[in-house]
Amino acid sequence: MSTPATPANFIRNLIDEDIATGKWGGRVETRFPPEPNGYLHYGHAKSIFLNFGLARDYDGACHLRFDDTNPEKEEQEYVDSIVSAVRWLGFDWGAHLYYASDYFDTMYACAEYLIGAGHAYVDSLSAEEMRELRGTLTEPGKDSPYRTRSAAENLDLFRRMKAGEFDDGTHVLRAKIDMASPNINLRDPAIYRIKHAAHHNTGDRWCIYPMYTYAHPIEDAIENITHSICTLEFEDQRPFYDWLLERLAEGGFFKRPLPQQIEFARLNLTYVVLSKRKLIDLVEQKHVDGWDDPRMPTLAGARRRGFTPQGFRLFTDRIGVSKADSWIDLSVLEECMREDLNKRAHRRIAVLDPVKLIIDNYAEGHGEECWAPNHPQKPELGKRALPFSRELWIEREDFTEVPPKGYFRLFPPRLDAAGIMQPGNRVRLRYGYVVECLGCDKDADGKVVAVHCRYFPDSKSGSAGADAYKVKGNIHWLSAAHACSAEVRLYDRLFAVPYPGRERDYLADLNPHSRTVVAAQLEPALKAAGAEECFQFERHGYFVADLVDTKPGAPVFNRTVTLKDTWSREHG
Ligand code: ATP
Ligand code: MG
Q1: Average pLDDT rounded to a whole number, residues 515-530
Q2: What angle, rounded to 10 degrees, do the helices at 42-57 and 76-88 form?
Q3: How many Cβ atoms sit within 10 Å of the Cβ of residue 464?
Q4: Mean pLDDT of 300-319
Q5: If you measure from the C-alpha of residue 448 to the centroid of ligand 2, how many angstroms do you get, rounded to a whole number?
Q6: Mean pLDDT (the chain, rounded)
Q7: Helix/strand number for the chain, H first, E second
Q8: In a 10 Å sphere around its CB, with 0-12 CB exposed, 13-18 middle and 19+ buried, how is residue 571 labelled?
Q9: Which protein residue's CA is at the shortest distance from atom 22 of ligand 1?
Q10: What is the CATH topology of the domain spanning 276-347+485-571?
Q11: Which architecture characterizes domain 10-266 according to CATH?
Q12: What confidence category does residue 290 fall into, taking pLDDT thresholds of 50, 70 and 90?
């Protein structure tokens, strides 16, 4: 991947300052810490490009850390999918692959230290009672009656919690900070809870698990992270992050300077949902074919859809990084994919809704070649031959019996206003001849089954006579005897409205037309397309050979994006 400079942002400015002051001796170490409880989505791409991008540009390191402190909901399938998605985006963590659950011993030792130093206590109130004492945004909380337990009693109880003597929910370990703090997150937050559940990594070793807000700062400190970048909703947690690491530095667990938490605005994108819970529902309730369904806003889905890592990079650079929450329209992402694909995709011909075009004055059994450039702006990519013959496939919509105003494609001879018969319309068969429409054949239901025309032998593209023919229409075609048939899936937006779920249940906002499957005709060169090869089908958009369903000699294509933003035009 070529590496154009990433635009400056407030985080880069901050890092530049840290480098200037020598705070970490010039070191930049970030991390991307997904919880393996779902597949990564478009939003994660923003975080991945930010964190791995900083490591790349500052000669630092970015860790891939599985934040697997919650024993429920975490699965190996998710771990594997995350590894594959980050790699696909082009990043490498080297030796820095970590599991938060590998730190359970240190987290436990830190908790014992906090108890001994009077910074934590075991609370035995019920969840309900605890909620009542927590206070509100305007009222201070009240101390739990267990807050004054001695360090020895707390330590004894905590060890028995760990030993499995108590049921879930009977005790929690809480940090001892300030029940009157205006920041509710500092009102003695829970740091360990009892949960008799097996963990995907540690099995049955533990029946107490650290809370996320406690575990996360410790994970960062253990890994010597310099800049711990997270989304804005954690801003109010930062005082606890700092409080905890300061206490643990006092206890000799970590050295200063301590990791610094920095918040940025998460990606909000129209026409998709980015909440893991909703994505899981879409899969489990079978509204889509799986996590990698090309309509899913997951990175696995994006890959099958034909979105590219370079397109995501363009997108994340373009939307930037800031502290202001905002919505990005999905068309911005689609446009970035178009821009990237326009550069790389070879042009090919596909007829998606085929109808026969018969050239009555072209000899039966005769054939020849026409030449089409692989990329109009890149002659160095060469040309390929398109076989031409008497019977062609054209798009059904490129013929009409009764042309509306401004229709420049094929229509049959007809009477004009003065009652005089006018010849049928002429179009150029792109890269081939000019033809004139003579009429059509219909079946018993009145459906057009073939269009007839005559061609002008001296009009072939590139020949001396070609310029003498002035026509307004220019249509694509394929020789029927040479084309190959293939399944093509026309994907569209998964949701029909910009903010799914805003007016009603988000599932009611699903777009019923998000996928149309057609039996298309493809030019012969496409028969050999390998999985993930992408092309521009002229006049139709960008398509990719499906990663899963493409077999040698039998490609299945997915539409990645249309050539232009047709959604805004049709729905806007
Ligand atoms: P949930 O919100 O369901 O807990 P999550 O999307 O936060 O899930 P994590 O696995 O915790 O999932 O996310 C890993 C990292 O990705 C976090 O550091 C988080 O800040 C970042 N991230 C998640 N969603 C977005 C988003 N929409 N935009 C930018 N970064 C995101
Ligand atoms: Mg999260």
Answers
A1: 97
A2: 60
A3: 8
A4: 98
A5: 56
A6: 96
A7: 13, 29
A8: exposed
A9: 44
A10: Ribosomal Protein L25; Chain P (2.40.240)
A11: 3-Layer(aba) Sandwich (3.40)
A12: very high
